[in-house]
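From the methods appendix. Each design record in this collection lists the tokenized structure first, followed by the designed amino acid sequence. Records were kept in a plain field format so they could be parsed without special tools. The example shown here is representative of the layout used throughout.

RECORD:
FOLD TOKENS (293 positions):
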């Protein structure tokens, strides 16, 4: 198993659409922009990518483009579903196209117990030699993976190498940082918590805001990694209105509104998601103006 070190800022990439189809040309341009702006790794096919609304063929092509354009950066691909067989099938389908690791979400809708989560992720990890990043986002899944479960998996499964922690709980992240193996990475799943998480020892962020400001988010993560928290605080406060705006409606609705206003994509989503409301568009416009975007 190849060692994967995840540090800095990775972007949870949006999936652009045009007239109902995936806009692969726009997606390729977005990835090139991310690389040019110094992003550390790419995360296609996650929550932000509207992955439940993508066909297998679309998911494969998005992964292929990500690998073609990544210039050696790790590509962490979302592969989780809400059943073990569905997740293993997704991983088998995507693995031939070269993902460097799989991001696997806590099964949604089912509301598993902690023991159920442990057994599920252990089975997933045992099915592949690829690194696995746990993804805890109870606001989406309806179930919180507690720190004890994360620590147990980190200790018992050699290829469970990181967690994307998006519970919003600093205490939970702190417990993982305190007790997990030294080579296990904690990645913030919330832009607003990048600074405090990294101050406590997290390795980086899987960011939504970096779709909009990749250079700034990469710099924020690198300032934290270098221990320059004085400059990191200034940048955090500058970007905080964007962090807040990205979640005034369900992600990725605001991020797509921002990229559309910047002329980078069409403002299209797939049902059940719809484009931003007029009020959200105004909020986004004000934020972009304040950031000179």
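DESIGN:
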């Amino acid at each position: 198993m190849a060692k994967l070190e995840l540090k800095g800022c990775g972007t949870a990439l949006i999936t652009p659409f045009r007239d109902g189809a995936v806009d692969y040309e726009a997606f390729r341009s977005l990835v090139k922009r991310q690389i040019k702006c110094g992003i550390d790794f790419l995360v296609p096919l996650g929550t932000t990518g509207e992955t439940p609304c993508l066909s297998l063929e679309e998911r494969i092509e998005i992964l292929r483009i990500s690998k073609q354009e990544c210039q050696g950066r790790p590509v962490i691909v979302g592969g989780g579903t809400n059943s073990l067989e569905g997740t293993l099938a997704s991983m088998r389908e995507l693995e031939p196209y070269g993902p460097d690791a799989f991001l696997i979400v806590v099964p949604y809708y089912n509301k598993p117990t902690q023991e159920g989560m442990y057994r599920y992720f252990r089975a997933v990890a045992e099915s592949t030699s690829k690194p696995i990043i746990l993804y805890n986002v109870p606001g989406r899944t309806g179930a919180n993976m507690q720190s004890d479960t994360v620590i147990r998996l980190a200790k018992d499964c050699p290829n469970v190498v990181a967690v994307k922690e998006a519970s919003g709980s600093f205490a939970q992240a702190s417990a993982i940082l305190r007790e997990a193996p030294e080579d296990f990475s904690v990645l913030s799943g919330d832009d607003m918590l990048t600074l405090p998480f990294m101050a406590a020892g997290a390795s980086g962020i899987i960011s939504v805001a970096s779709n909009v400001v990749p250079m700034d988010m990469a710099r924020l993560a690198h300032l934290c990694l270098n221990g320059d928290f004085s400059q990191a605080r200034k940048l955090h406060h500058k970007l905080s209105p964007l962090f807040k705006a990205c979640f005034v409606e369900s992600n990725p609705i605001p991020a797509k509104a921002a990229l559309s206003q910047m002329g980078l994509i069409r403002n299209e989503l797939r049902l059940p998601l719809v484009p931003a409301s007029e009020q959200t568009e105004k909020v986004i416009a004000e934020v972009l103006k304040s950031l000179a975007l």
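APPENDIX NOTE: The longest helix spans residues 229-245.
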